[in-house]
UniProtKB/TrEMBL annotation:
Top-level taxon of the source organism: Bacteria
Native organism taxonomy: Bacteria, Bacillati, Bacillota, Bacilli, Bacillales
Pfam families documented for this protein: AzlD
Record keywords, A-Z: Membrane, Transmembrane, Transmembrane helix
Record's protein name: AzlD domain-containing protein
């Protein structure tokens, strides 16, 4: 019985993920819709990261903001995302140990 429940749950979670992959390829959107859809991952990433930036250190919230600003500056320069993350982590680390 448990095996049937696990199989059913996997199918229920798999279908909403697979069906759009086949449908979206066949649709043709206008250019402004494509630009809007391309911005969604960045907006979602920002919404996920920003609360963490503010909660790095409860006593000194400016440390997280400085780490975020460092990440923005490194990304603006055009560095690889790995270097942006390492630079931001390093700046927060240095500010919290001082």
């Amino acid at each position: 019985m448990i095996f049937i429940i696990i199989i059913g749950m996997s199918i229920v979670t798999l279908l909403p993920r697979i069906i759009p992959a086949f449908i979206v390829d066949k649709l043709q959107f206008k250019e402004w819709v494509n630009r809007w859809l391309n911005a969604i991952p960045y907006a979602a990433l920002g919404a996920l990261i920003f609360p963490g930036v503010l909660s790095v250190n409860a006593d000194k919230p400016y440390i997280g903001l400085i780490g975020g600003i460092v990440a923005i500056m490194l990304a603006y320069v055009g560095l690889n995302v790995i270097f942006v993350v390492i630079g931001s982590i390093l700046s927060v680390f240095l500010l919290t140990t001082v």
